[in-house]
Amino acid sequence: MGVIRVGTASWTDKTLLASGWYPPDADTAEGRLAYYAKNFPVVEVDSTYYGPPNENTTRLWADRTPDGFTFNIKAFSLLTGHPTKVSALYKDLRPDTEKKNVYPHDLPPQAYEEVWTRFLTALDPLAAAGKLGALLFQFPPWFGIKRSNKEFLLEVAARCKPLRPVFEFRNASWFDGGNAAETLGFLREHRLAFVSVDMPQGHRSSVPPVLAATADLAVVRFHGHSDKWTSKDIYEKFGYRYSDAELAEWAPKLRALAAETDVTHVLLNNCCADYAQRNATTLINLLGDAAVPPGPG
């Protein structure tokens, strides 16, 4: 059976800081990350979706965490085809446009290539420290199943090599009818890691909770079941706390998934107050010996 690393998709959210989860003496960036790493062996960094990181920051992350700690990094929005604020781009690569948001085709090819290079290079300190886990590529709702999009998955994998991209879909076409077998078969054929999700159903971006190992790494992200999933307020969108009973139903499913792969990452993305941290702790307890314990503080 493979190992399971459980963590959350944030450690600096303002509502988390206000929740009282951190002790009073964890009142600095360094102290908060150290305290987080005492409690969980993995964290997902989502801020890199909104703006690419720099090497100084990733070096600090590496230095401030114990051996064996893992960072998963969410890909910059431009690299997954999402609308990206011009102000989020590297200053010297910003196009001369009055648009507030741009897409890859709005940049000269050389500039787009440079964004890829700088984004991946900024992760070098984490990779050198052995603390870089997966690169999360979460695609937009309009990224449906078709040949060109499958080819893009292969392109992403080639660009990232030897780093590990993992793929999360937000378009139900990947799992409509017979497409589920086609999607998982394609990922397995090319050893591309699939991101399973638990999320509200019935929306354009909804994907069913399919648990599947398609490579030696599997990832599961818990988004909650807020009835305000379409809200632009992220705390309404992700403001859902799983009950102990819900998590107890997930524990055997996660063990079964882990039996099919080497490593499974489970990330609680219901980042409102301390919901994710409390739920992650409960899940670690439910998984028992199957869950990797946090590193030394």
Question: Would you kindly provide a written description of the structure presented here, covering whatever features stand out?
Answer:
The protein is α/β, with parallel strands linked by helices and 297 residues long. It has one domain: TIM Barrel (Alpha-Beta Barrel). The protein has eleven helices and ten strands. The strands form two sheets. An eight-stranded parallel beta barrel has the order 1-2-3-6-7-8-9-10, surrounded by four helices. The longest helix is centred in the last third of the chain and has 15 residues, at 244-258. The chain is globular, with a radius of gyration of 19 Å. The two termini are 27 Å apart.
Q: Can you summarize the main beta sheet?
A: 8 strands, parallel, barrel
CATH class, anyone?
Alpha Beta
CATH fourth-tier homologous superfamily: Protein of unknown function UPF0759
- Basic shape: globular
Task: Indicate the CATH topology.
Answer: TIM Barrel
**Residue share in helix:** 25-40%
What's the total helix number? 11
Radius of gyration: 19 Å
Helix-and-strand structural type: alpha/beta
Number of structural units classed as domains = 1
What is the spatial order of strands in the main beta sheet? 1-2-3-6-7-8-9-10
Low-confidence stretches: none
